Amino acid sequence: MAKKLGRATWLMDSFVSVSAFASSAGKKESEGPFGSIFDYVDPDDRFGQQSFEEAESAMQGLTLQTAIEKRGIKPEEIDILFGGDLLNQCIGTSFALKDFRVPFLGIYGACSTISEGLLLSSLSVDSGIAERTANITSSHFCTAERQYRFPLEYGGQRTPNSQWTATACGAIILEKGIEPPFIKAVTVGTIEDKGIVDANNMGAAMAPAAYSTIKQFFEDTGLLPDSFDFIVTGDLGLVGSRLLIELAEADGIDLRSRHLDCGKMLYEIDRQDVHAGGSGCGCAASMLCGHFLPSLKSGRMKNILFAATGALLSPTSTQQGKSIPGISHLAWISGEA
Amino acid sequence: MAKKLGRATWLMDSFVSVSAFASSAGKKESEGPFGSIFDYVDPDDRFGQQSFEEAESAMQGLTLQTAIEKRGIKPEEIDILFGGDLLNQCIGTSFALKDFRVPFLGIYGACSTISEGLLLSSLSVDSGIAERTANITSSHFCTAERQYRFPLEYGGQRTPNSQWTATACGAIILEKGIEPPFIKAVTVGTIEDKGIVDANNMGAAMAPAAYSTIKQFFEDTGLLPDSFDFIVTGDLGLVGSRLLIELAEADGIDLRSRHLDCGKMLYEIDRQDVHAGGSGCGCAASMLCGHFLPSLKSGRMKNILFAATGALLSPTSTQQGKSIPGISHLAWISGEA
């Protein structure tokens, strides 16, 4: 049974193993510095579908199916599936999953969804509630643009601090086992709101949440940043990453030397004209499944903290002049037993 | 540790007690047959706020605070808070909870949210992951109408099978204890989609999901409907309830004599002109917290199955002509040890 440490961290009591994972992405993501890491790349981001929403669901279905096949199981061998996405009412996920016929719990953590799923999954597996779980999440540039900002046809200008929603997806299967990587601990985030109101600067809105959760993990466990190869955030981008480093520095914590941000990694920021970097549930999920989990599995990395970050706003709250609450959930993922 | 039975049911191993609960509602709900059961009724549905979205958040904050005070604890004594709502990106919940400073996991199950929260909470408490959890969910007629259908000012006609989104909220605190009511078992739902495309007939879209989960519970446990005082669904309304009874009858299961539906109970359907009944996350949550939990606590009821039901559609999926996937999660709630 996972042991609770401090306010919000749980240390696993058993070997909770990431037994399979898969990722997929769109064309622009395939042209970035990590373009070759995905299991599947769609040449036109449509995944063979008529609408972009259907494309996002197809991407999720394909990615989950790939993870299931890599593990060599059938969907009915999954006890619980945790999933969600950025679309209103999480329709990307509900339409993707309906043919899998697996007991399903919908989660919403905006771009922190992959961490939230990992967290619920690893607690479920460690405690014996589930023998095997799966997580899925995604984002799609074209569904997000028309829902959160403008229809693509409008050709709206993007502000300097805006981020590019990744067309990407990650799926993970967890169960007890002796094959790395392992989920060693998780920290549940708390909603943080420092009053940022610019919906085109989500990195700034999410940085305090990322820092709060990372700090909570260190407080709860007594560990220090130098126990980890990397401290990875989800999609803070250029602006949010800088703020994270500064927030930590103000507390005398040096994150600079080991911080990575999936939103800064997924694209070559200048060449690909993504302004402050990548974002979206799929950004952190695809980098985790395409890059970090393979690196931990092969031994190239030993330990990372993975803290995906979500901005809990909606266009309605923005139109009403409200600030942007953020949240970040964290998993300590290890390549060592 | 909860014992898994069959495909999707978990039987609790300890006394998971509902240690506090609270409900609140709007004016119309207070004029219904259960109008006197709520802890708080707002006279104009605005809960002292400027916008309806802020009103919904204020209602959640107030209801959670009431439950916390009834239990005589402080927010920091809650290990994990599970919450969500119907608004895009679940902003009702994120804005409501940001001042509570409790580790938060967002969930999305549309109107099944209160069941999904109960399920995750009771598994967390039973397994020892959390000592104490809280659940919160809500809906608001005015936020739902403008988001899902028409702005109120438009005065759109409502179709005969449409349901009235309740302005209502429920909050529940769970922990191990010897005071009833207890959560005895839970069943995780699977997405069901029988091809209903009429977004004004959500009862029909959700009935197969409710039936699937209820049937799964009976299959997994070997229990029969006559073990329960009532089998309660969330918001199937008149149309969905009829379909549920018929689906069960086709399998030789008689639910007629013990089925209740919160959507049929919350309003006096003809006098209050709510067409096919009530709906919304708050409908099932407020009836659970205002009526069923007190009845189980006082011994007026001994055992109920509580299966809130969610329609996993969005206006976008409806506009694209897609069908409506449904889901229902179930909890067996008992007044007996």
Key traits:
homodimer, 337 residues, alpha/beta, Peroxisomal Thiolase, Chain A, domain 1, twelve-stranded mixed sheet, two-stranded parallel ribbon, 10 helices, 14 strands, 25% strand, globular
CATH homologous superfamily classification of the largest domain in chain A: Stage V sporulation protein AD
Overall average pLDDT of chain A: 97
- Write down the oligomeric state: homodimer
Number of strands of chain A: 14
The helix content of chain A is 25-40%
Number of alpha- plus pi-helical segments of chain A: 10
Instruction: Show the largest interface.
Output: A-B, 60 and 60 residues
Report on the biggest sheet of chain A. Answer: 12 strands, mixed
CATH architectural name of the largest domain in chain A: 3-Layer(aba) Sandwich
- Structural category of chain A is alpha/beta
The total domain count of chain A is: 2
Class of the largest domain in chain A, according to the CATH hierarchy?
Alpha Beta
Radius of gyration of chain A: 18 Å
Q: Shape of chain A, please?
A: globular
Strand content of chain A: 15-25%
> CA-to-CA gap between the ends of chain A?
17 Å
Low-confidence stretches of chain A are none
